[in-house]
Amino acid sequence: MLSRRTLLLGAGVAPLLFSTASPTKAAAHSEQASVFPQIGHSGEISAVAFAPDGRRIVTGGRDHTLKLWDIASGREVRAFRGHCASVVAVAFSPDGRTIASTSDDRTLRLWDTATGQELRTLGGTCDEWWRVVAFSPDGRTIISGNYNGALTLWDIASGAQLRALPGDGRPLAVAFSPDGRVITSAHNKEASTSSPEADGAIRLWEADSGRELAVHALTLDHKGSIDAAALSPDGRYIVTGDNTRNDCDILIGSWSHTVTLWDSATGKSLRTLTKHDKPVWAVAFSPDGRMIASAGGEGVNKEECSLYRSSDPSFSELKLWDAASGRELHTVTGLENAGKLAFSPDSSSTVIVDHSTLKLCSITDGKNMRTFAGYGVIPRAVSLSPDGRYLISGHIDKTLTLWDAASGRGLHTLKGQEAKVNTAAFSPDGRHLISGSADHTLMLWDTATGECVRTFEGHKGEVLATAFSPDGRHIISGGGEVRLWNTVTGECLRTLGIGRSVMAVALSPDGRHIASLNDDSLQLWDATTGDALYPVHGIVISPFVSALVFSPDGHTIIPLDDSFGVTLRDTMSGKKLRSLKGHKSTVLAAAFSPDGRTIVSGSIDQTVKLWDAATGECLRTLNGYGGVVLAVAFAPDGLSITAACGGDNAITPIGAGTIRRWSTAGEPLTISLTTPDGEWLTVTPEGFFDASTNGASCLNLRRGQEVSSIDAIYAQMHRPDLVREKLAADPRGLVREAAARLNLANAF
User: Fold this and answer.
1) pLDDT tens-digit profile of 275-292?
2) Which helix (H) or strand (E) is 248 found in, with range?
3) Residues contacting 340, CB < 8 A, separation 6+
4) I want to staple 17 with a disulfide (CB 3.0 to 4.6 A). Which of 606, 632, 653, 685 is the partner?
5) How many whole angstroms separate alpha carbon 89 and alpha carbon 48?
6) Do 627 and 61 touch, CB atoms closer than 8 A?
7) What is the C-alpha end-to-end distance of the chain, expressed in Å?
């Protein structure tokens, strides 16, 4: 972990809210200064582009956000929020003042680079699924390509649609000619209806009239599918990357992943570069037109005869080629999953996406010059001790962190599980906690010392849920089957649901009943005898994660299934009582408030919702832009909510993660994170923080488009006392008063 005095080359997320500074005449300084944590995209980066001046990079992610980065320092400048689905493509205007983005939410959005504010939303109808976007050379119009192949030309000033250009086949690239008179697009055969025999197509249009000038079919000399394309700066050439698909003989017998150069005026193949031995998913021309970059890296599953994404660094690579001769210049290896890429405006470097990080590589020798990486480890579980003193978080890096709930301070890092931690719970007296892992084991920990007391072995699958009995003498766990354990001896007393693929388990508050979610049913068991009481069939289990939650009085149970809602059922009969609808994707977590009157839920849609348990009314929606919400919990006093957030999916979460806390009134309280090397940070929306020795290295100071470390204001902002006040909802107004007195302008 870099020290707080060391330049941090990392990614960032949503800046926190507080800022104070005197406005200046310079546009870059018109914004007040703000402190925010540098966390990184909460999911894979799906789009990247350099600013025209080469000083900034913009990325789009599956976490629904765009991020602006400073090349010199590697720091995040700001986040752009507004999309409600994965970002697909990004582009800068020629003057760099505007950014365009397309998304799976079927909108095209324009953003102010300097402020991060959304300027305009274009499209948004159900048939507008924009995949590519490009500005005209004069910056007055923008062209976007629909999934079905159609292009749309827009007026930037008014947002009006100027003309529609019909097309066919999924667009892979689109660009204006240098004089702005011709629009060229490259398509693959996916969604094509007119040329099913071709592997792709090039289309040329007259920009002013929308008249189609030419259509050229692209036909490979081998069986394959064109999955990437880029246009040369002068518009004369197109480079494509292709992959073989669905043919065992080709996949296993001879690789055919190639980079092909085409004449855009005729559609003729000019050159096939040396075959990749890995699928090609991204290609790009250098701005001077002299080089081509290609990236990819899947393996082949010979048993299933299909392509797959591999996390083995030997399966990913970036290749640099001489465009004129086709000679390979450099190969960059050591990438886990090479994806999108872009050249710098001066053609001296290229940036390559590797999962949720960026790597800046030299054109001269192909060496990595800088890595932009986030620090927050994704938490999969959160729980508070019954007395409210402690908070435990379990993470995908096999560790747990024990926090002081009142102050936000990290107390212990618990190490011992050999795979990601899926679940954690405190004993009734708070002296112990139990964790369950993908390594098929449970571990019992001493809260005071952080030491492992006992390991429980025997599960045949991942341990997905665990809980203590009301008297603390027994532990219930679910992992392939349900097991009841003696806390003191570690002996397995009973096994239930064998052969039923148990996905979730819960113990009623009185300890009398065990509930489990099996293949397609909710099963209630007598905890004393192990007898099955009833099954409720027809429940569709989520492929992501399933959970069970009892109400405090034990009369109601929530089995989270594969739906966008929360279903309440009567515990003893299994009868459906009520459905809470409002999330836009699968609900992954839910919890009752201590009085049972309120329910909190978290979803893949990255929101946390509060519900009235009696009426089903949605009381409040919280959006922290922190990624998928994997776990939620109420504080024992019912006054605050904690959520584990991170990643862009629940099966293989990638990217950054945070622990976020709100008051039940919806006020953000703190963001906490842990780093891969054991540092921790808790920061308030106002920028006051507490941290481990080097944890503050994850914080940035920004004003306008200037960004730096917080070294100059460390003493001002390191206020553990104010973090504690904030977590108590600032009852005396001390945080508010301290924020009002801050002046961060002199830090620049």
Assistant:
1) 666 778 889 999 999 999
2) helix 248-248
3) 45, 46, 47, 48, 282, 295, 352, 353
4) 685
5) 7
6) no
7) 25
What is the model's pTM? 0.87
Torsion of CA 639, 414, 432, 465, to 10 degrees: 70
Give one word for 87, left, alpha or beta, with left for phi > 0 and alpha for psi -120 to 50: beta
Residue 238 is encoded by which pair of tokens? 């197109």
| Cβ(403)–Cβ(391) below 8 Å | yes
Residue 244 identity: T
Residues 6 or more apart whose CB falls under 8 angstroms from that of 304 comprise none
Q: Residue 657 in contact with residue 646, Cβ under 8 Å?
A: yes
Which tens digits make up the pLDDT trace of 287-308?
Answer: 999 999 998 765 433 333 333 3
SS3 192: coil
- Return d(Cα 481, Cα 477) in angstroms, integer: 8
Whole-number Å distance between alpha carbons of 146 and 135: 16
Please answer whether residues 39 and 672 qualify as being in contact, where contact means their C-beta atoms are separated by less than 8 angstroms.
no
The domains found in the chain, sorted by start residue, are 220-372 (2.130.10.10), 379-674 (2.130.10.10)
Nearest CA among 558, 621, 619, 552 for reference residue 590: 558
CB 171 within 8 A of CB 149: yes
Cα-Cα-Cα-Cα torsion 571, 574, 579, 584, nearest 10 degrees, comes to 100
